[in-house]
Amino acid sequence: MSDTDSGDGTEIEEISGPDVEAIEFYGGRWMSVIPIGLFILWAIVQSGLFGIGDTTGLVAGMLVALIVGMFFAKGDWKNYANTIFDGMTKRVAATAVVAWLWAGMFSNTLQAGGFVGGLVWAANAAEVGGALFPAATFILAALFTTGIGTGYGAAVAFSALFFPAGILLGANPVLLFGAILSGAVFGDNLAPVSDTTIVSAVTQDADIGGVVASRFKYAIIAAVLALAAYVFAGNAMPGLDISQQAQDLFVQNSEPAGLLHLISMLVVIVTAVMGRHIVEAISWGLVVAVAFNIVFGLAPLSAVLLFKVPETSSAASWAGSLPIAEVVAPQNAGVTGSIYNGAAGFFPLIVLVLLIVAGSEIMIRGGGFEAIQEWLLENVATGVRKAETTMVVGTALVNSMITINTAAEIAIAPYIARIGQRYNINSYRRANILDANTSALGYIFPWGGGVLIGFATLQGLPNQYEWFTSAMVVNPVQVWPYVFHGWFLFGVFLLSALTGFGLEYTTDRKSKDVTRL
Amino acid sequence: MSIFSKFLTGMSFRTTTPTFEAGEEIEVYVTELDEESGELVALVGETRLYFENGEADIVGCRVLAKVESFDDAEHRGRLTHLKTLSQGSF
After folding, report:
1. What is the DSSP code string of A96-131?
2. What is the CATH classification number for the domain harbouring B52?
3. I want to staple B42 with a disulfide (CB 3.0 to 4.6 A). Which of A158, A178, A351, B28 is the partner?
4. Which of A53-57, A147-151, A323-327 has the highest mean pLDDT?
5. What range(s) does the TRAM domain occupy (chain B) (predicted)?
6. Which residues of B touch A14 (CB under 8 A)?
7. Interface of A with B in 214-253 (CB under 8 A)
8. How confident is the prediction along chain B (90 residues), in pLDDT tens digits per residue?
9. How far, in Å, CA of B86 to CA of A332, rounded?
10. Residue A460 distance to chain B (closest CA, Å)
11. pLDDT of residue A272
12. Helix-strand-coil percent breakdown of chain A, rounded to 5?
């Protein structure tokens, strides 16, 4: 942090960041793109070509890419190494990391409390048939994802519970899988606790509550169109002929009490809209969720936190009597529960994001970022409409290549900020363009992380139900045209960019502090 | 701004050339240093706002500025740089 005189008697405030030292590369400034470029190539090969949706594998790719890039750096490599440190300690990354950890704990605690079961019960009570089941699934998956903030979590939960139920009711399987992914897109885009929402806001200097409110109009337009499409297609596309007892499956998984967690969700959303800090808002939601689990018997305290004490421990004699401990064989010792699992689920993504930000920092100090930006601004984004269209299509393209949507979002975020700030496009609008297309494209293409996670869950169903055959599993290649909300959301933003619908300038309104919801 | 208006703001088709009033104080990102005139410029959409003061090192920064004059027909205005608030996001 430094205060600088601008030369005309005015004071520069809040200029942040260390004194940057440029890195020179053999072959010129374009060579500084190597770490990020190599990582994108790795991501395409790993997830697109080989079909491996492993985030830790991408971490390995980014590490290799950073090492390879170092060999092209001129002079003392200490500068290159220090740049990695500087990138990894940027506030933009740290803010996202904190938010993910809190959001992970919260969403896992809701799942432990049977929230999905409650939603299934509601669908059953409403007597939704096979033709309308995809539309109902879209609505419920959207609500669920909006509450918990993780589309990947929704894809897993709904593929495991709603998919077999829908098949038994006579819903078309491809349409049903598309509806689940569409719901994930909706929530990932709109939820205040979604990782993509958080990244889009913090990278564009916008407060999360304002971002969510400002993107509501786009999300609802796309959702209404998608809902109509699912109702129409649900009646037009036949389901599989299975004469099994659908009600049995519903009853087996239905627990109306799980709907109590709608209140936990509301606590976070209302606290968010009131403008409280992200850590505070989610913490309140977590406290309410844990209390509901215990008071209403939705899940024991041990489901939230459990110490698995080895029987060889000196505390084994009394630890077993505690509600949050059990004595186990030494090889099973450890800690578990929704707080532990919810946070731990984000660890690989956290490391990956820190490394990607480091790679971006190298590209910035090496001049590659500037070179790409100059090219875009001089040749593509030559007016505000073209700039916005470039932002929409560019975000979509990067997300079609990097399948972990949050990672893709972070990689493209600096360009959205620079291009948008050049034309003084409001931070809310930039965040909305960035997140909508990230959320949409991450669940459409067959190699997308969200699609692969849902597909992996479907592959486990034949082992779970006798009647479920491998032929009922939807191949990711089949589903991409039916992720209606994703396509409509992309279309809404493309039209918005071309026509100026929803466009706001920095002079129109100010965002609040970026670290507030 | 009320919660309701947070949701409704921006529900319109916005022009590429917004207008401003003399005396208005605005926050803008400084876009570039115009090589021909040697003046700092902030593009708001395709409206060009020229700074009457300020150094080249604030290009890319978010600044507080006062609108001194504005030509609606040409979509051009003149600004006085009051304070530099922050650097751009990246």
Report:
1. HHHHHHHHHHHHHHHHHTTHHHHHHHHHHHTT--TT
2. 2.40.50.140
3. B28
4. A323-327
5. 19-81
6. 85-86
7. 214, 216-217
8. 566 777 778 888 999 999 999 999 999 999 999 888 889 999 999 999 999 998 888 898 999 999 999 999 999 999 999 999 887 666
9. 52
10. 41
11. 67
12. 70, 5, 25
Alpha carbon of B11: minimum distance to chain A alpha carbons (Å): 5
Note whether A11 contacts B: Cβ–Cβ < 8 A: yes
How many domains are there within chain B?
A: 1
Per the prediction, chain A carries an average pLDDT of 84
Task: Give the residue with greater pLDDT, A282 vs A28.
Answer: A28
- Identify whether B10 is part of a domain: no
Q: What is the pLDDT of residues A66-83, one digit of tens each?
A: 999 999 999 889 999 999
Does residue B19 lie in a domain region?
Answer: no
**Cβ pairs bridging A and B (under 8 Å):** 139
The range of the structural domain enclosing residue B39 comes to 24-87
Nearest CA in chain A to B66: A507
Q: State the nearest Cα–Cα gap between A67 and chain B, in angstroms.
A: 24
Q: Is the pLDDT at A122 greater than 70, yes or no? A: yes
State yes or no: pLDDT of A509 exceeds 80.
yes
Cβ-based contacts of B15 with chain A (< 8 Å): 500
Residue B54 forms part of a structural domain = yes
Q: Average the pLDDT over each of A33-47, A166-180, B59-73 and give the range with the smallest value.
A: A33-47
pLDDT tens, position by position, A315-356: 999 998 999 999 999 999 999 999 998 888 778 878 887 888
List C-alpha distances in Å: A103 to A147, A424, A453: 10, 32, 19
Q: Are A409 and A194 in contact (CB under 8 A)?
A: no
Tell me if B60 sits within 8 A of B29, measured CB to CB.
yes
Q: What is the band of A9 on the pLDDT scale with cuts at 50, 70, 90? A: very low
Interface of A with B in 185-204 (CB under 8 A): 203-204
Q: SS in 3 state form for A70-104? A: HCCECCCHHHHHHHHHHHHCCHHHHHHHHHHHHHH
Check CB contact of A3 with chain B, cutoff 8 Å: no
Task: Collect all residues of chain B within an 8 Å Cβ-Cβ radius of residue A422.
Answer: 29, 31-32, 43
Amino acid at B42: A
Binding-site residues on chain B for chain A (CB distance < 8 A): 1, 3, 6-16, 18, 20, 26-29, 31-32, 42-46, 53-55, 57-58, 60-62, 81-90
Q: Which residue of B has its CA nearest to A15?
A: B86
Instruction: Find the Cα–Cα–Cα–Cα dihedral A367, A373, A378, A384, rounded to 10°.
Output: -150
Higher local confidence (pLDDT), A185 or A95 = A185
Q: What is the pLDDT of residue A172?
A: 94
Residue of A19 and A300 predicted with greater confidence? A300
Which phi and psi (to 5°) does residue A512 adopt?
A: -80, 180
By the CB < 8 Å criterion, does A372 face chain B?
Answer: no
Q: Give the confidence band of A15 by pLDDT, cuts at 50, 70, 90.
A: very low
B54 neighbourhood in chain A, CB within 8 Å:
6-8
Q: Is residue B30 part of a domain?
A: yes
Contacts of B88 in chain A (CB under 8 A): 417-418, 421
Interchain proximity A12–B15, CB inside 8 Å: no
